[in-house]
Amino acid sequence: MSFLTDPEFWARWVGIVLIDLALAGDNAVVIALAVRSLPKRQALLGRIWGTVGAVLLRVVFIAVVSALLQIALLQLIGGLMLIWIAIKLVRPSGSEGEGGHVRHGASMWEAVWIIIVADLIMSLDNVLAVAAAAHGNMVLVVFGIGLSIPLVIAGSGVLARLMNRFQWIIWLGGGVLGYVAGEMIGRDTLVADALGPYAKLVQHTLGFGLAAMITLLGWWLSRREREASV
After folding, report:
1. Contact criterion met (CB below 8 Å) for 69 and 78
2. Which of 210, 185, 204, 227 is closest to 90 using CA atoms?
3. In the list 42, 85, 86, 104, which could disulfide-bond 108, CB 3.0-4.6 Å?
4. Counting runs of H as helices and runs of E as strands, what totals does the chain give?
């Protein structure tokens, strides 16, 4: 249990929570849509069991991705993918949600199935981001995702609306993704070998640089969209 007194553990835990919440908007919408025609009690149970099932499978996938990221060049490719995911995250999306096409469940278990399948289809970005931020530490993965479960269950559509209202949550999540992407690129075996003793310095410099760039990009794109709508 010594990890509980490690500041780096808690810093990475906060990063995972931010990433998971920032990328959870569409998943929350899917949950809300899947249970929308059910009675109140069944809708609550559907949200709980659907989210728990999806998260358990996501933890398995994160473990697999964490193992794959140890292969040379895959961290570099994964880092570049995370930059793209972060830019897509902070780009204003208007009122249109990706979950709008999801059908509702006619029964609680059908809704649970819809939630699990939709989450698996939509969660590649989340799985890659959390696996990269955790550095293979599955305790961090469980802690980080565990906190997001009650928030997603309770919030569903409310969570998505909050992120539209308080856009700094999205910008901050994008910045964390940028930092993780920089770390991944710097940690790749081939890149680290090429940089030699400067690998750590480049890793952190690139991480902080990408974090600042993506956060500012989100702010600038949002401001430009507001000015265009006036």
Report:
1. yes
2. 210
3. 42
4. 11, 0
CA dist 124 and 128 (Å) reads 6
158-176 pLDDT, tens per residue? 655 566 677 777 788 788 8
**Under 8 Å between Cβ of 53 and 112:** yes
Token digits for 104? 């509702």
- Across the chain, mean pLDDT equals 75
Q: What is the mean pLDDT of residues 22-45?
A: 70
Fill in the DSSP letter of residue 91.
Answer: S
Task: Say which amino acid occupies 178.
Answer: G
How buried is residue 197: exposed, middle or buried, by Cβ count under 10 Å (0-12/13-18/19+)?
A: exposed
DSSP 29-69: HHHHHHTTTS-HHHHHHHHHHHHHHHHHHHHHHHHHHHHHT
